[in-house]
Fold:
Amino acid sequence: MTGPAADAVVCTALGVEARAVREGLPDDGGSVQVIRTGMGPGPAGRAENRLRGAGVLVVTGFGGALDDSLRPGDVVVASEIRFDGRTLPCPSAPLLAGELARAGLNVRTGPLATSDHIVTGAERHRLSEEGALAVDMESGPIAAAAGGRPFAAVRVIVDTPAVPLLRPATIRGGVLAFRTLRQVAPVLARWAAACGPRRALLAAPRSFCAGVERAIEIVERALDQYGPPVYVRKQIVHNLHVVRDLEARGAVFVDELDEVPEGAVTVFSAHGVAPGVRDEAAARGLRVIDATCPLVTKVHAEARRFAARGDLVALIGHAGHEEVEGTMGEIPGSVVLVEDVADVARLPEGRRVSYLTQTTLAVDEAADIAAAIRRRFPDAEGPQKDDICYATTNRQHAVRDVAEGSDLVLVVGSANSSNSRRLAEVAGRAAPAYLVDGPGDIALDWLAGARTVGLTAGASAPPALVDAVVAALGGLGPVTVEERRVAEETIRFTLPKEVRTR
Structure:
């Protein structure tokens, strides 16, 4: 592991806390120093002189739960510190919380309150009602003393509203918290190693494309016009955050139409469906709104045209993808899925061959397979216009440009997003590249020593997630943001008549 960019000081109030951290630190923990400040905001504030040489600061140790769902041994990573009428942000909290969760700990992220006394009863309830997860007595003054340096606060729960301090049951909680604090320590060392100044290179275009924006707006308008629930067959787009947001607003996502009540408002996802699905919806009297991306609809039309003249259609794509299933359903008996160059050799002879492409593939991957088809079938005809979506192409060009100047590339997108996975593959040819759903998926070891981080997002990933990653990186040290744009996107698609403004 690369050593910390600057000396790190881990502050604890009690000797037993300092001992747990020291025991848990790895032998190669670098220049991580553990100090005991003493208990309460007064001693913690007076420790400021001992912190002047530290490049990064951490407060850790035991804490009291305010939220009823927390249990002894649970870990709270502060997203902000509330102290003396001030709110002090902890931007790197998602990175630290994600790493602790991967270490097997039960982690929550949220506000941490600092008090000058042990909080009990009604006061504990009031702080919980204000949204704080836990309370301690030292984080506030040290967070204030950080003065722009990377700062984190991590508390391991000892007592809860149901079992407060000075009860026999808290002895068991203290033992459990001590063991947990030892497990926290190596993660704090990795967090310190990841701290330091860096540059973020933002690929542009990135995030939502016109088809994704249209599909999401269709569901939102359907909810507004028809009221919840609105049923959506499959994920409207392949992104966990988009799906959760729409679920919170009343959308119900189903795998098959037999899960939808007869006559209900039902949206088909952006990836398209086979004719058989449309027939089933009609038979059950569903009020269908079609959110299929117009570029996918174009591929369906081409498939029907080729099949109508008797061609065998080679569909370049990935098995199981909803777009592929929909296209193959348009022309059953006339289509063969081709996933790689080896599949081309298995195409039958004696029939005219044409080919189409899933819209979210890597451009060079699809081009290699198409070239192999043309070599074997010189008369093979492809689409009148490139099937691969303009947004997919633009994002791949942009991330390739960024990756060439990066130590590390982060691609924001869900694991089931084909276009996001292709971006990671394209970037990975020039630099280490990882697909992440958000800041919490970023491993701290990836960031150690990475001073230039390339950043993009798949066409189905919300732009706010990129902002969240930049903000989290900023919690590790100063970040200089530079955008590299390779294309402007002005395409907009019209909405279906069912949700147009009346």
Q: What stands out?
A: The chain has three domains: 8-194, 198-206+391-485, 295-376. The two ends are 60 Å apart (CA to CA). The domain at 198-206+391-485 is CATH 3.40.1010.20 (Cobalt-precorrin-4 Transmethylase; domain 1). Confidence is low (pLDDT under 50) at residues 1-6.
